[in-house]
Design a protein that fits this description.
Elements lengths: L1 H13 L9 H9 L9 H26 L4 H22 L3 H18 L10
Length: 124
């Protein structure tokens, strides 16, 4: 029975059937299998892709504001594209996305404790 369970888990992972909460590490590893870009220009390519996809999110939100209606699922889809670029940038910087997420939360909670969430500048 154990072998059958192992085969089922492998099938689910290979076919992106997620039965549990997805982790950042899992997403980053799976997303990297779809990464096709010039490796010698990886940072530039990924940064440009990230800004391009973020612009698509902004454009869909702008239309939602302008028209009073919009497709939130389309916005969510674009956020997925932003996430892909974030994950690939994390990989290129050799800092796991999970670590980046943890460090970001620590930074934000520290700002909250110091009462500096509002304001500007990196070192608050």
């Amino acid at each position: 029975m154990l072998k059958l369970e192992e085969e089922a888990r492998k099938f689910m992972q290979d076919n992106l059937v997620i039965a549990e909460v997805m982790t950042a590490d899992f997403y980053e590893a799976r997303a990297s299998k779809t990464a096709i870009f010039p490796k010698e220009k990886a940072l530039e390519y990924l940064a440009l892709g990230l800004t391009s996809e973020a612009g698509e999110v902004a454009g869909k939100v702008k239309k939602l504001i302008r028209d009073g209606k919009g497709d939130k699922k389309a916005i969510a889809s674009e956020i997925g594209d932003v996430l892909w670029y974030c994950a690939m940038l994390a990989r290129e910087t050799e800092v796991p996305l999970n670590t980046i997420m943890q460090d970001n939360l620590k930074k934000l909670h520290g700002r909250k404790e110091r009462g500096t969430l509002k304001g500007s500048g990196d070192n608050r």
